[in-house]
Specification:
single chain, two-stranded parallel ribbon, flat
């Protein structure tokens, strides 16, 4: 099975990942698209703290990809 992972630097709703998934569907590509990014309003803090809190730092992204696979 083919997989595509996208990473938005903002909310995943209406993000580029959704556009990639829509383009794949229009083209008839059979791939599972996993959109990674913010799913709620981001917390405040330093960049590293915010990314870690939302699972968008390197360990969080690796865990999300591993879970999807």
């Amino acid at each position: 099975m083919k997989r595509i992972f996208t990473l938005d630097d903002h909310l995943v709703d209406s993000g580029q990942g959704k556009m990639v998934a829509a383009a794949c569907a229009r083209l008839g590509l059979t791939a599972t698209v996993t959109n990674l990014g913010l799913t709620d309003i981001p917390c405040c803090g330093r960049n590293d703290e915010v990314l870690a809190r939302h699972g968008l730092d390197a360990p969080g992204l690796a865990a999300s990809v591993a879970k999807a696979l």
